[in-house]
Amino acid sequence: MLTNTESARQTIGLDSGIPKWIFLQLLESCNLRCKMCFEWGDNGAYKEKPELKKLDLAVVKKIIEDCSPARPYYELYGGEPLIYPWIDEVLESIKYHKSRVHFPTNGTLLERHAEMLVEHAPERIWISLDGPEEINDAQRGEGVFQKAMKGIRKLYEVRESKGSMYPKIGISTAITPINHQHLERFYFESLDMSMIDCISVELQQYVTQERYEHYAAVLKEEFHVQSAPIARGFISSPEHFSSIDAGNLARQLKLIEKFCKDSGRYFNAYPKVISEENIRYYFNAKWEQVTNMKKRCVFPWISMEINARGGVTSCHNFYDLTLGNVNEQGLLDIWNGPKYKEYRDYLKKQLFSICPGCCLYYNEKPSQ
Ligand code: SF4
Ligand code: SF4
Questions:
Q1: pTM to 2 decimal places
Q2: Number of domains present in the structure of the chain
Q3: Which residue ranges does the record assign to the Radical SAM core domain (predicted)?
Q4: Ligand 2: which residues within 6 Å by Cβ?
């Protein structure tokens, strides 16, 4: 008979020797240049890359096969995942091995891929949209909103015509100084909610200069990593968010949350508890005062991320600290290897200073 502790360890995957949640950054390229993007935006770290990479399909298939005994949950990232030339084969392979998969997209290529997406039926697709047309396009580029709307309609029509339940169609919105006043109008006037199954809203992720410098110093001293250019793409400051009216934002978010609850739609928010105070703390970089903030993070024990260069990291989007490379070594050897242990040992004692800039910080489990 298992003790409670042993049972809990098995439930969250600590003993399986295989990660339960795998993020694959399929490629670095994107067809957009959204202003707030930490990869391709105003402060984006990818703009300086001399060459853009993508994961080799054979490597991706090997990962999916090697991890199949644990049937992990997958999230696909980019850049823009729908640009990845073998996206259909990746979805097919995940489905074949009976795992679930979600991914975000900017929506501009949905119309072209609608048939393929209904055929391979990932569980959920999140279309990233930031507000009504003029607001969205001010952040993401002219014409993006209309392209995404056409894509959503096509995907919905193909799915309905085939009598399929999947993919579920979600809208994901990052709240920034540009769109914070327009969420109510966006969700209740600009969108045809009859086609939308789920909504995710998150306050724009950022780290302060001070926290970034602390993180960069820890990487140097503890892990011998000399620079942290990716995390630099997240740097911002409370001044940047000073125009945000926390009361009005909380009111709008609560309306959206209630709408989802009343209509049976899935709703997700980061941070989890929506209140005027929490929004104010968050945008004033007082993360420790936000409700339910964590003292530790379990994700290094259950999830891993493979970036487009093959680098393995445990922290979503923070690719400066890699713990191995799948182009050179088996994924499970890395997961169970000494570098991962050293890294977990550090995180047993404390979080990183950049953790509040990581969406996993606000998550307890894979989104439903
Ligand atoms: S679509 Fe996504 S990856 Fe591409 S620039 Fe916009 S936020 Fe960045
Ligand atoms: S919250 Fe921190 S430790 Fe956890 S995954 Fe994110 S960056 Fe890593």
A1: 0.91
A2: 1
A3: 16-239
A4: 297, 299-300, 314-316, 318, 347, 351-352, 355, 358, 360-361
